[in-house]
Write a structure and sequence with these properties.
By secondary structure, the chain is mainly α. It has 19 helices and 6 strands. The strands form 2 sheets. Strands 1-2-3 form a 3-stranded antiparallel sheet. It starts with 5 loop residues before the first strand and ends in a 7-residue tail after the last helix.
Length: 424
């Protein structure tokens, strides 16, 4: 490869001394025995350059011979020169066939300043905000802020498997779960892929591959309720409007094939088709890869009652979680508030009806989605039928939603499987 024939280094150009007794620090690029020097706009004496080269060794006599202020100045120059050195290396990787002219073109475009992780992060945040995908923008922003807390300034050449493992350890040490680490690093992976697509960094630098670094996944805990627990919730008589609203929203989600609250909030009269409710998941409606599967739900008596209770003649929305005229951010805040209040009061209800406190405190609006899928499975529905009901493109996603078999289910299956054998 021609890239391997190209070397790059920082050196002191001692051909001509300046009036103040210093020499310019330059970047030297060598290709097929041809050399060219590029100014780094820094200068130092030969004595200081000797210290500059051994800055990593603080026990060295040359290092100790400098004053504190001289060390700080040299260390600053070292960081600046390293930044240019590494960024220049990335520019060379971008060139399929190296020439000094092409390298200088990239150099003069200022691409060195663009090889920055957080700049691409901010572009992604702005893009999602412009598309009114406020939830996604918030998620990407949380990822960026977490990384900035770990490394204030971050460039793509610094995102190595070692960096990622260090970040993961730091997150776990600070009480964050592996699930959260995974969510944040998937955003970073997306940003890294964008940088590769734009030619800001070579694909060879990609760290998210087997053998380098694997993004962690949290252990899945049982999120579904069984029939008895769902029945207890359904028979509960709310004590106030907050419990009533929480119960209605949770069961609406359950009856609507485990629809997310954002999907419930966006239901309008236009989604009613006779005795059926038909809608697309907001999460996948804008995808271009065929992920926008329509979900069809039979409208039962509970749903009709809810539409009548919450619907307003002046609003197209069926449940009045949202209202017309809101900005994307206001809609996001309304939905987040609904989720928060529903989670709070459905947990209180679960405790009141006697559901195990360890289970009750983990019930959320998302539990309704897992419960819907698991109830279908235990009632004999095929995985493909459950996949269609949930609106998943891939069956593997559906499998992640299904709760593990309970011990009593395993006992029944084993008893049935070995019923032909006689007990000794």
């Amino acid at each position: 490869m021609q890239i391997l024939q190209t070397t790059i280094e920082v050196l002191l150009d001692t051909r001509r001394i300046k009036k103040n007794g210093t020499y310019p620090l330059k970047l030297r690029v060598t290709y097929r025995q041809e050399q060219r020097l590029y100014s780094l706009r820094m200068e130092m004496t030969e004595e200081h350059y000797k210290v500059f080269k051994i800055l990593g060794d603080r026990k060295h006599s040359l290092y100790k011979s400098c004053t504190v202020s001289e060390r700080r100045e040299l260390e600053l120059m070292k960081r600046r020169s390293d930044k240019v050195l590494f960024a220049s290396q990335e520019l060379i990787y971008q060139l399929a066939c190296f020439t000094f002219e092409d390298f200088e073109t990239l150099l003069n475009r200022g691409n060195l300043k663009k090889v920055n992780v957080y700049a691409i992060y901010q572009e992604e945040i702005d893009r999602h905000t412009e598309l009114e995908k406020i939830g996604t923008a918030d998620s990407v922003r949380c990822s960026m802020r977490s990384l900035m807390a770990y490394r204030r300034k971050l460039e793509f050449y610094q995102v190595t498997p070692e960096f990622l493992r260090g970040y993961e350890r730091w997150m776990i040490k600070n009480g964050r779960s592996k699930t959260t680490v995974g969510i944040y690093l998937r955003s970073l992976r997306k940003v890294f892929n964008l940088a590769i697509q734009r030619g800001l960094i070579p694909a060879e630098r990609y760290p998210f591959v087997k053998g380098k670094y694997t993004i962690p996944t949290g252990s899945r805990t049982l999120k579904a309720l069984d029939k008895d627990q769902v029945l207890l919730l359904s028979k509960y008589t709310p004590r106030d409007k907050f419990e009533e609203h929480a119960k209605d929203v949770w069961f609406m989600s359950l009856y609507c094939n485990g629809a997310n609250i954002i999907d419930l909030a966006n239901l309008t009269r236009a989604n009613i088709d006779g005795n059926m409710l038909r809608f697309l998941r907001i999460k996948t409606a804008n995808r271009t890869n065929g992920g926008d599967k329509q979900i069809s739900v039979p409208i039962n008596q509970f749903m009709r009652h809810a539409f009548k209770k919450f619907g307003k003649s002046s609003s197209p929305y069926l449940l009045s979680i949202l209202e017309t005229g809101l900005t994307a951010k206001q809609e996001r805040n309304k939905i987040k508030h609904c989720i928060k209040m529903t989670n709070k009061y459905i947990r209180n209800i679960a405790l009141e009806v006697g559901i195990d406190p360890e289970i009750a405190k983990k019930i959320t609006t998302y539990t309704a989605r897992h419960t819907f899928a698991t109830l279908l499975k235990r009632d004999g529905a095929s995985y493909e039928e459950i996949q269609e009901s949930l609106g998943h493109k891939n069956l593997s996603t559906t499998m992640c939603y299904l709760a593990s078999f309970r011990d009593e289910d395993k006992q029944k299956m084993n008893a049935s499987a070995f019923s032909f054998l006689k007990n000794p």
